[in-house]
UniProtKB/TrEMBL annotation:
GO terms for molecular function: methyltransferase activity. GO terms for biological process: methylation; xylan biosynthetic process. Keywords: Golgi apparatus, Membrane, Transmembrane, Transmembrane helix. Its main location: Golgi. Gene3D superfamilies: Vaccinia Virus protein VP39 (3.40.50.150). The chain crosses the membrane at residues 18-34. It is a single-pass membrane protein. GO terms for cellular component: Golgi membrane. It comes from Hibiscus syriacus (Rose of Sharon). It holds the Pfam family IRX15_IRX15L_GXM. This is Glucuronoxylan 4-O-methyltransferase 3. It is found in: Golgi apparatus membrane.
Amino acid sequence: MKREETVKNRHIFADKRWIVPLVIAGSIVVSSFVKTADYSILCSLAKTRSMAIDKYSATPIQLQAIIHYATSQIIPQQNFQEISVTFDVLKKRSPCNFLIFGLGYDSLMWTALNPNGNTIFLEEDQKWVQSVLKDAPSLHAHAVKYRTQLKEADDLLTHYLSEPSCYPSKAYLRGNDKCRLALTGFPDEYYDTEWDLIMIDAPRGWYPEAPGRMAAIFSAAVMARNRKGSGVTRVFLHDVNRRVEKVFAEEFLCRKYLVQSVGRLWHFEIPPASNMSSLDSHRFC
Protein backbone atom coordinates (compact mmCIF):
# COMPACT_ATOMS: atom_id res chain seq x y z
CA MET A 1 0.00 0.00 0.00
CA LYS A 2 1.20 3.50 -0.76
CA ARG A 3 2.34 5.61 2.18
CA GLU A 4 0.37 8.50 0.67
CA GLU A 5 -2.81 6.42 0.75
CA THR A 6 -2.19 5.51 4.37
CA VAL A 7 -2.00 9.15 5.42
CA LYS A 8 -4.86 10.28 3.16
CA ASN A 9 -7.27 7.64 4.46
CA ARG A 10 -6.26 7.85 8.10
CA HIS A 11 -9.37 9.82 9.07
CA ILE A 12 -11.59 6.93 7.98
CA PHE A 13 -10.30 4.91 10.91
CA ALA A 14 -10.56 7.72 13.45
CA ASP A 15 -12.56 5.68 15.96
CA LYS A 16 -10.47 2.53 15.56
CA ARG A 17 -7.01 3.87 14.73
CA TRP A 18 -5.61 3.04 18.15
CA ILE A 19 -6.60 -0.63 18.01
CA VAL A 20 -3.93 -2.03 15.68
CA PRO A 21 -1.00 -0.11 17.24
CA LEU A 22 -2.05 -1.26 20.71
CA VAL A 23 -2.37 -4.86 19.55
CA ILE A 24 1.11 -4.63 18.00
CA ALA A 25 2.50 -3.28 21.26
CA GLY A 26 0.83 -6.14 23.10
CA SER A 27 2.30 -8.70 20.70
CA ILE A 28 5.78 -7.32 21.33
CA VAL A 29 5.22 -7.58 25.08
CA VAL A 30 4.00 -11.17 24.74
CA SER A 31 6.90 -12.21 22.50
CA SER A 32 9.35 -10.71 25.01
CA PHE A 33 8.01 -12.17 28.23
CA VAL A 34 6.10 -15.35 27.47
CA LYS A 35 9.25 -17.47 27.65
CA THR A 36 10.20 -15.81 30.92
CA ALA A 37 6.86 -16.70 32.47
CA ASP A 38 7.03 -20.33 31.32
CA TYR A 39 10.61 -20.74 32.42
CA SER A 40 10.20 -19.13 35.81
CA ILE A 41 7.51 -21.66 36.76
CA LEU A 42 10.07 -24.41 36.39
CA CYS A 43 12.78 -22.59 38.30
CA SER A 44 13.12 -23.00 42.03
CA LEU A 45 16.34 -21.13 42.62
CA ALA A 46 16.24 -17.34 42.68
CA LYS A 47 19.57 -17.06 40.91
CA THR A 48 18.46 -19.27 38.04
CA ARG A 49 15.19 -17.38 37.73
CA SER A 50 17.07 -14.09 37.62
CA MET A 51 19.25 -15.38 34.80
CA ALA A 52 16.19 -16.49 32.84
CA ILE A 53 14.51 -13.12 33.25
CA ASP A 54 17.65 -11.34 32.12
CA LYS A 55 17.92 -13.61 29.06
CA TYR A 56 14.34 -13.06 27.89
CA SER A 57 13.69 -9.50 29.01
CA ALA A 58 12.68 -6.95 26.41
CA THR A 59 15.48 -5.43 24.39
CA PRO A 60 15.82 -1.63 24.08
CA ILE A 61 14.36 -1.73 20.55
CA GLN A 62 11.35 -3.66 21.85
CA LEU A 63 10.75 -1.15 24.62
CA GLN A 64 11.00 1.68 22.09
CA ALA A 65 8.53 -0.09 19.81
CA ILE A 66 6.06 -0.69 22.64
CA ILE A 67 6.02 3.00 23.51
CA HIS A 68 5.84 4.02 19.84
CA TYR A 69 2.87 1.86 18.89
CA ALA A 70 1.03 2.32 22.18
CA THR A 71 0.96 6.06 21.51
CA SER A 72 0.72 6.00 17.71
CA GLN A 73 -2.29 7.04 15.63
CA ILE A 74 -0.84 5.74 12.35
CA ILE A 75 -2.15 2.53 10.81
CA PRO A 76 0.62 0.15 9.59
CA GLN A 77 0.77 -0.86 5.92
CA GLN A 78 -0.51 -4.38 6.65
CA ASN A 79 -3.60 -5.24 8.67
CA PHE A 80 -3.52 -7.32 11.85
CA GLN A 81 -4.34 -10.62 10.11
CA GLU A 82 -1.56 -10.09 7.57
CA ILE A 83 0.95 -9.08 10.24
CA SER A 84 0.07 -12.18 12.25
CA VAL A 85 1.24 -14.47 9.41
CA THR A 86 4.82 -13.24 9.68
CA PHE A 87 4.62 -12.88 13.47
CA ASP A 88 3.72 -16.57 13.82
CA VAL A 89 6.83 -17.51 11.83
CA LEU A 90 9.06 -15.11 13.79
CA LYS A 91 7.93 -16.67 17.07
CA LYS A 92 9.51 -19.93 15.85
CA ARG A 93 12.48 -18.65 13.81
CA SER A 94 13.70 -15.58 15.72
CA PRO A 95 16.48 -14.61 16.08
CA CYS A 96 17.02 -14.87 12.36
CA ASN A 97 18.15 -12.98 9.27
CA PHE A 98 15.14 -10.96 8.10
CA LEU A 99 15.30 -8.95 4.86
CA ILE A 100 12.53 -6.44 4.19
CA PHE A 101 11.96 -4.56 0.95
CA GLY A 102 10.47 -1.27 2.10
CA LEU A 103 10.74 1.07 5.05
CA GLY A 104 7.47 2.16 6.60
CA TYR A 105 5.31 2.73 9.64
CA ASP A 106 5.70 -0.92 10.64
CA SER A 107 9.51 -1.12 10.45
CA LEU A 108 10.10 -0.59 14.15
CA MET A 109 7.62 -3.39 14.82
CA TRP A 110 9.42 -5.90 12.57
CA THR A 111 12.76 -5.14 14.16
CA ALA A 112 11.26 -5.52 17.63
CA LEU A 113 9.65 -8.86 16.72
CA ASN A 114 13.08 -10.23 15.75
CA PRO A 115 15.04 -9.42 18.94
CA ASN A 116 18.76 -10.15 18.73
CA GLY A 117 18.26 -11.02 15.06
CA ASN A 118 19.45 -9.23 11.93
CA THR A 119 16.65 -7.18 10.34
CA ILE A 120 17.49 -4.84 7.48
CA PHE A 121 15.32 -2.66 5.26
CA LEU A 122 15.87 -1.70 1.61
CA GLU A 123 14.14 1.52 0.50
CA GLU A 124 14.32 3.39 -2.80
CA ASP A 125 13.38 6.81 -1.40
CA GLN A 126 16.50 8.40 0.12
CA LYS A 127 14.55 11.26 1.73
CA TRP A 128 12.11 8.82 3.31
CA VAL A 129 15.01 6.81 4.75
CA GLN A 130 16.43 9.95 6.34
CA SER A 131 13.02 10.89 7.73
CA VAL A 132 12.40 7.49 9.31
CA LEU A 133 15.91 7.13 10.74
CA LYS A 134 15.63 10.57 12.31
CA ASP A 135 12.86 9.24 14.57
CA ALA A 136 14.15 5.65 14.82
CA PRO A 137 17.96 5.72 14.42
CA SER A 138 18.29 2.14 15.68
CA LEU A 139 16.72 0.75 12.50
CA HIS A 140 19.10 -0.83 9.99
CA ALA A 141 18.15 0.59 6.59
CA HIS A 142 19.78 1.17 3.21
CA ALA A 143 18.74 3.46 0.38
CA VAL A 144 18.92 1.52 -2.90
CA LYS A 145 18.30 2.10 -6.59
CA TYR A 146 16.34 -0.15 -8.95
CA ARG A 147 16.95 -0.61 -12.66
CA THR A 148 13.36 -1.44 -13.60
CA GLN A 149 10.08 0.38 -14.19
CA LEU A 150 6.61 -1.08 -13.72
CA LYS A 151 5.68 -0.44 -17.36
CA GLU A 152 8.46 -2.85 -18.38
CA ALA A 153 6.96 -5.82 -16.51
CA ASP A 154 5.80 -7.82 -19.53
CA ASP A 155 9.01 -7.13 -21.42
CA LEU A 156 11.04 -8.27 -18.43
CA LEU A 157 9.28 -11.64 -18.43
CA THR A 158 10.17 -12.09 -22.09
CA HIS A 159 13.74 -10.99 -21.40
CA TYR A 160 14.23 -13.54 -18.60
CA LEU A 161 13.16 -16.41 -20.85
CA SER A 162 15.81 -15.50 -23.42
CA GLU A 163 18.70 -14.41 -21.18
CA PRO A 164 20.79 -17.35 -19.89
CA SER A 165 22.06 -15.37 -16.88
CA CYS A 166 18.45 -15.20 -15.67
CA TYR A 167 17.89 -18.97 -15.89
CA PRO A 168 17.41 -20.59 -12.46
CA SER A 169 20.33 -22.94 -13.07
CA LYS A 170 22.70 -20.02 -13.72
CA ALA A 171 21.11 -17.02 -11.99
CA TYR A 172 23.13 -14.92 -9.56
CA LEU A 173 22.69 -11.36 -8.29
CA ARG A 174 25.87 -9.45 -7.50
CA GLY A 175 27.29 -8.00 -10.72
CA ASN A 176 24.76 -9.75 -12.98
CA ASP A 177 24.21 -6.81 -15.31
CA LYS A 178 23.01 -8.97 -18.19
CA CYS A 179 19.90 -10.12 -16.33
CA ARG A 180 17.71 -7.03 -15.98
CA LEU A 181 15.77 -8.66 -13.13
CA ALA A 182 18.84 -9.21 -10.96
CA LEU A 183 19.28 -6.61 -8.23
CA THR A 184 22.79 -5.22 -8.69
CA GLY A 185 24.68 -2.43 -6.95
CA PHE A 186 23.12 -3.16 -3.56
CA PRO A 187 25.03 -3.12 -0.23
CA ASP A 188 27.39 -6.07 0.32
CA GLU A 189 25.33 -7.17 3.31
CA TYR A 190 22.43 -7.91 0.98
CA TYR A 191 24.50 -10.42 -1.00
CA ASP A 192 26.66 -11.85 1.79
CA THR A 193 23.84 -12.79 4.17
CA GLU A 194 21.75 -15.93 3.87
CA TRP A 195 18.23 -14.69 4.58
CA ASP A 196 15.78 -16.82 6.55
CA LEU A 197 12.79 -14.53 5.96
CA ILE A 198 12.23 -12.12 3.08
CA MET A 199 9.35 -9.67 3.02
CA ILE A 200 8.49 -7.83 -0.20
CA ASP A 201 6.33 -4.77 0.50
CA ALA A 202 8.26 -2.40 -1.78
CA PRO A 203 9.40 -0.75 -3.96
CA ARG A 204 6.54 1.35 -5.25
CA GLY A 205 4.43 -0.29 -7.91
CA TRP A 206 1.27 1.67 -8.61
CA TYR A 207 2.26 3.93 -11.53
CA PRO A 208 4.11 3.19 -14.80
CA GLU A 209 7.42 4.86 -13.93
CA ALA A 210 7.64 3.27 -10.47
CA PRO A 211 10.35 0.60 -10.00
CA GLY A 212 7.79 -2.16 -9.44
CA ARG A 213 8.50 -5.33 -7.48
CA MET A 214 9.52 -7.51 -10.41
CA ALA A 215 13.25 -7.54 -9.56
CA ALA A 216 12.62 -7.96 -5.83
CA ILE A 217 10.47 -11.04 -6.46
CA PHE A 218 12.96 -12.54 -8.93
CA SER A 219 15.91 -11.89 -6.61
CA ALA A 220 14.10 -13.37 -3.60
CA ALA A 221 13.56 -16.55 -5.62
CA VAL A 222 17.24 -16.67 -6.60
CA MET A 223 18.41 -16.22 -3.00
CA ALA A 224 15.99 -18.87 -1.75
CA ARG A 225 17.11 -21.41 -4.35
CA ASN A 226 20.80 -20.69 -3.64
CA ARG A 227 20.39 -21.24 0.10
CA LYS A 228 23.21 -23.33 1.58
CA GLY A 229 21.92 -23.69 5.14
CA SER A 230 19.25 -26.04 6.41
CA GLY A 231 15.54 -25.44 6.07
CA VAL A 232 13.50 -23.31 3.70
CA THR A 233 13.41 -19.60 2.97
CA ARG A 234 10.15 -17.92 3.97
CA VAL A 235 9.03 -15.26 1.50
CA PHE A 236 6.14 -12.90 2.27
CA LEU A 237 4.72 -10.91 -0.64
CA HIS A 238 2.24 -8.09 -0.04
CA ASP A 239 -0.25 -6.51 -2.46
CA VAL A 240 -0.90 -9.71 -4.42
CA ASN A 241 -4.23 -8.19 -5.47
CA ARG A 242 -2.20 -6.31 -8.09
CA ARG A 243 -1.52 -7.98 -11.44
CA VAL A 244 2.28 -7.65 -11.56
CA GLU A 245 2.83 -8.96 -8.04
CA LYS A 246 0.59 -11.95 -8.72
CA VAL A 247 2.05 -12.80 -12.14
CA PHE A 248 5.67 -12.55 -11.01
CA ALA A 249 4.96 -14.53 -7.84
CA GLU A 250 3.47 -17.36 -9.87
CA GLU A 251 6.43 -17.28 -12.27
CA PHE A 252 9.27 -17.15 -9.73
CA LEU A 253 8.03 -18.01 -6.22
CA CYS A 254 5.75 -20.81 -7.47
CA ARG A 255 2.22 -21.78 -6.50
CA LYS A 256 3.42 -25.15 -5.23
CA TYR A 257 5.43 -23.37 -2.52
CA LEU A 258 2.54 -21.11 -1.46
CA VAL A 259 1.56 -22.22 2.06
CA GLN A 260 -0.69 -19.38 3.22
CA SER A 261 -2.84 -16.62 1.76
CA VAL A 262 -4.30 -13.97 4.05
CA GLY A 263 -5.81 -10.76 2.73
CA ARG A 264 -3.32 -9.28 0.29
CA LEU A 265 -0.39 -11.33 1.63
CA TRP A 266 1.06 -14.57 0.23
CA HIS A 267 3.45 -16.68 2.28
CA PHE A 268 5.84 -19.05 0.49
CA GLU A 269 8.21 -21.71 1.82
CA ILE A 270 10.90 -22.15 -0.83
CA PRO A 271 13.44 -24.98 -0.50
CA PRO A 272 16.98 -24.67 -1.82
CA ALA A 273 17.54 -26.02 -5.32
CA SER A 274 19.51 -28.92 -3.85
CA ASN A 275 16.32 -30.15 -2.15
CA MET A 276 13.99 -29.76 -5.13
CA SER A 277 12.73 -33.03 -6.57
CA SER A 278 12.61 -31.78 -10.16
CA LEU A 279 14.43 -28.90 -11.80
CA ASP A 280 13.83 -27.01 -15.02
CA SER A 281 16.95 -25.29 -16.29
CA HIS A 282 14.92 -22.48 -17.91
CA ARG A 283 11.90 -21.94 -15.62
CA PHE A 284 11.62 -21.40 -11.87
CA CYS A 285 8.22 -23.06 -11.55
